[in-house]
Design goal:
Blueprint: E1 27-31, E2 36-40, E3 53-57, E4 59-61, E5 65-70, E6 75-83, E7 88-94, E8 103-106, E9 111-118, E10 121-126, H1 132-138, E11 163-166, H2 178-186, E12 190-196, E13 218-222, H3 224-231, E14 237-240, H4 242-251, E15 261-265, E16 281-285, H5 292-301, H6 303-315, E17 326-330
Parallel strand pairs: 1-17, 3-12, 3-14, 4-11, 14-16
Antiparallel strand pairs: 1-2, 5-6, 5-8, 6-7, 7-10, 8-9, 9-10, 12-13, 13-15, 16-17
Helix pairs in contact: 5-6
Length: 331
């Protein structure tokens, strides 16, 4: 299987630049092995029943991005990926000719030096401690590069986001509203909460052979209450997003039992992967061509069927990517 096996044609005008308001009024493509239906996201209620368990990812996007410039005046953007100490971080830097030894200036009298590099990750050190207050005042959310507008914070956070630490939103969850969640609970559907902090490894392109691609590690946690809820469920298991799937598969034993834990995962799910968890349905957005996320949904539902659904989504003018419409894959 080659990377081009996960390619498809997408007109650029279908890359969504803005979320629908209210969020649960986005479109929903419902895909089974036999049929495709076109709904709205609030219709998700039709596919949930008493005793089902809906798995959501509580991660919250960190304010980790800051715009600045080199001493020469050329623009850069820096995204913190991991704290080393109060002033030093690992980071991704976008700009021309980035190298160790450079100095960057930002608003609020912030300055940093580039002190090291490992592959595409740099180490930087700021001139003062980067506290929560500094992050809140000087940094912004690291929204997707294909969104060409400033995205308000509430548009790029799920209504149930709680645990700060992610570098991207778990976008399948962006379609839920508080009102819709209350209606879901009223049907006696259980809400299981996991956390997986999304790193840029999820979005890195696959270069070379798929089987040789390495995912960056991501932190996840599943507590005993959630594990018991999933293991003892009476109905369907419905995962909200590929991040929830990654958390479940990273915590399941060989019999598919979810083991409570706090750990890191480098799991890479692509066709040929044998799922340990019996996930009956997956809510997800429409993913980039050739991406690891498209490979994950292809592993879950079958590459040919996924590409058929994506072709119809293009024909029906669905909105793609992070701020776009949703898809419900039902096994």
């Amino acid at each position: 299987m080659e990377i081009n096996d996960f390619d498809y044609n997408l007109p650029t005008e279908l890359i969504s630049q803005k979320a629908v308001t209210p969020k649960d009024h986005s479109r929903l493509m419902v895909v089974t092995k036999e049929i495709i239906e076109h709904k709205h996201f609030y219709d998700i209620l039709e596919y949930l029943e008493k005793g089902d368990v809906l798995v959501i990812n509580e991660t919250k996007v960190s304010k980790a991005k800051i715009l600045g410039q080199k001493l020469t005046g050329s623009k850069i953007q820096l995204i913190l990926t991991e704290r080393i100490d109060e002033r030093a971080f690992k980071a991704r830097i976008q700009g021309n000719k980035i190298k160790v030894g450079q100095i960057y200036e930002f608003n609020d009298n912030l300055i940093c030096d580039v002190t090291g590099q490992s592959d595409d990750i740099f180490e930087v050190k700021f001139n003062k401690p980067i506290t929560k207050e500094v992050l809140e005042k000087s940094f912004i959310l690291p929204t997707p590069p294909y969104v060409k507008r400033v995205v308000p914070d509430q548009e790029y956070q799920t209504v149930y986001s709680k645990k700060t630490g992610s570098l991207a939103a778990p976008t399948a969850g962006l379609h839920f509203t508080d009102e819709l969640l209350e209606k879901i609970k009223a049907k006696s559907v259980l809400i299981a909460k996991v956390c997986l902090h999304i790193d840029f490894g999820t979005f890195l392109p696959v270069r070379g052979a798929i089987t040789e691609h390495k995912m960056h590690r991501e932190y996840f946690e599943i507590d005993k209450e959630t594990a018991d809820m999933i293991n003892n469920r009476k109905g369907k298991l419905v995962a909200v997003g590929t991040t929830s799937v990654r958390a479940l598969e990273s915590s399941a034993d060989d019999q598919g039992k979810i083991i409570p834990q706090k750990s890191y995962t480098e799991i890479f799910i692509y066709p040929g992967y044998k799922f340990k968890t019996k996930i009956d349905a997956l809510i997800t957005n429409f993913h980039l061509p050739k991406s690891t996320l498209l490979m994950l949904v292809s592993a879950y539902f079958g590459r040919e069927r996924i590409l058929e659904a994506y072709k119809e989504a293009v024909q029906e003018r669905y909105r793609f990517y992070s701020l776009g419409d949703a898809c419900l894959l039902v096994l």
